[in-house]
Amino acid sequence: MYFKASIAALASISALAAAQAPSIDQWTQSEINNGTAWKEVTQIARDNQLYNLGTRENSPCQWGTMNVRKEFRDMSKEDRKSFTDAATCLMNTPPQRMRPDQAADYPGILSRHDEYVATHINLTFHIHATADFLGWHRHFIKHYEQDLQNLCGYTGTLPYWNWALDASAPQDSPLFTGDDYSMGANGKSIPNRSDTYLYTQGINMPPGTGGGCIESGPFSNITINLGPLDLPNTKNVDSNYQYNPRCLNRDFNSFFTERYNTFTNVTELILESIYLEDFQDRMQGYASGDPFGVHGGGHWGMGGAASDFHSSPSDPLFFLHHGMIDNVWTTWQNLDIYRRQFIIMGTSTLGNSPPSAKMTLDDVIPFGFVADDRIFRELMDTFAEGYCYRYE
Question: Rounded to an integer, what distance in angstroms lies between the CA atom of residue 330 and that of residue 150?
């Protein structure tokens, strides 16, 4: 019986290993543009995940009992409210890992949520345009999900925001109505603003649709304490961990989302990126002719606190955005799982500046005030110990 089961498992593995990722030519341009292709591609990836899991004998992670992450608007009202309540709770929970003797060096860390922001600030140049960008953020948001559960009594999973559904006008998304079951509202509109030239990307950015404080719904009465470090037209802090209490602001801007976060963008990213280096560069805006990618487009499209390169986790919406980024990577991996599961490419410094060694799966990845360090290979499999989740 065991021999037969093993032969069946080996046959399944061989079938998956021989399978090829679908070609973009399988869909019309209209189907790519309207989201039909995205829906079908993600279903193919989920079918492959289920098939892959069936080859793992005695795996404690099972399809029917694993955590399922949903798009925020697909959650019940009660679950949405539970999530935002827990996220607010974390912003009022004392720091958990910063020692008392470290407090003087980190005056802006007043809460557990601040520990996430400070960690991102500290590691910014080692977790973007690096080999571990995707893996690091996967674990970062997973630990956030666990903290919501363990520290704030949340019984659900981390939702994600599919910005492609809202790319033409994110400020009008049902996620941001400002009612009790939303992710809060856009920031208060600030009129009579001019375009801003973004030197790194070489473009003129028109003003967004908000810019001020969130005034209704969840997160309208919270205080953020760290950053910003890099925002244009803003008084940035003088030191990385300076205490800078203020409201949470947003500035939704379709200039970015309708150019970089559409169904066309995300589907072409997945289906046209055969090689990891192309996938990573295109996602993050380091590919020729694409200065933002779906990652950068999402951050700048949210505007406000979420668009600061260093302190973007100040806005809880950061974690839904990166849930979508992880969903995209998970989909890409599972379209060709045996070639893509454990493949990495790059170094540990932003754009390899300063030059650093190529990373390996045996490297130790730091998580600062968020969590214990992890081995790189432990971040690559969503069915591995400590993860066991999928996207719906």
Answer: 25
Going residue by residue through the chain, which has 392 residues, state the pLDDT in tens, using 9 for 90 and above: 333 334 344 444 445 544 578 999 999 999 999 999 999 999 999 999 999 999 998 899 999 999 999 999 999 999 999 999 999 999 999 999 999 999 999 999 999 999 999 999 999 999 999 999 999 999 999 999 999 999 999 999 999 999 999 999 999 999 999 999 999 999 999 999 999 999 989 999 999 999 999 999 999 999 999 999 999 999 999 999 999 999 999 999 999 999 999 999 999 999 999 999 999 999 999 877 889 999 999 999 999 999 999 999 999 999 999 999 999 999 999 999 999 999 999 999 999 999 999 999 999 999 999 999 999 999 999 999 999 999 99
* Rounded Cα gap, residues 23 and 26, in angstroms: 6
Q: Packing angle between helix 2-18 and helix 36-54, nearest 10 degrees?
A: 150
Give the C-alpha separation, 183 to 316, whole Å. 8
Structure tokens at 144: 């956030």
pTM: 0.95
Show contacts of 352-357: CB within 8 Å, 24+ apart.
none
CATH number of 2-391: 1.10.1280.10
Query: Phi first, then psi: what are they for 201, rounded to 5°?
Result: -95, -15
Query: Is residue 51 packed enough to be buried (19+ CB in 10 Å), middle (13-18) or exposed (0-12)?
Result: middle
Residue type (1 letter), 324: M
For the chain, what are the domain ranges?
Answer: 2-391
